[in-house]
Amino acid sequence: MRKGFTLIELLVVVALIGVLTTLVMANLNAGRERSRDAQRKSDLRSMATALRLYYNDKGVYPANNSSNQILGCGSTGVTVCTWGAEWSVGTTTYMTKLADDPIPGRDYKYALGTDSNPSDTDSFVLSACLENPSDDKGVVTSDTTWCPSGWMYQLRP
Description:
Elements: H1 7-58, E1 63-64, E2 70-73, E3 79-80, E4 87-89, E5 92-95, E6 109-112, E7 124-129, E8 139-140, E9 151-155
Antiparallel strand pairs: 1-2, 2-3, 4-5, 6-7, 7-9, 8-9
């Protein structure tokens, strides 16, 4: 009598390995999403601290441009601050690296003021698009061009 596995037994084992691999990969991807979302929240808290330092020095928060970038860099403090680059005004450095979204091609949003009063120089809103829509700190956004998941995290002072 020959010893070995039949074709059916081998096919069943291969199918089981495929199902297990799919389940593991789905959990790993969800874990990566949660990790990037945690990084985004941490980045916004760091930026909020730097913005408060800027406010202490200047008496107002920096303005923003139409692309929702901070206008508070350069020698005069009116140049666009680039995500991922140093944030400094003159000789004062607020962040050695202004945080950038973990996914290339995505950016955070900064807006001076509040939704009801955009000219309020004593307030700001920082926003990041979250990947995990089950995050309990998120809020709905209708801007799915910027945030494909429709779920964002916002930080206000």
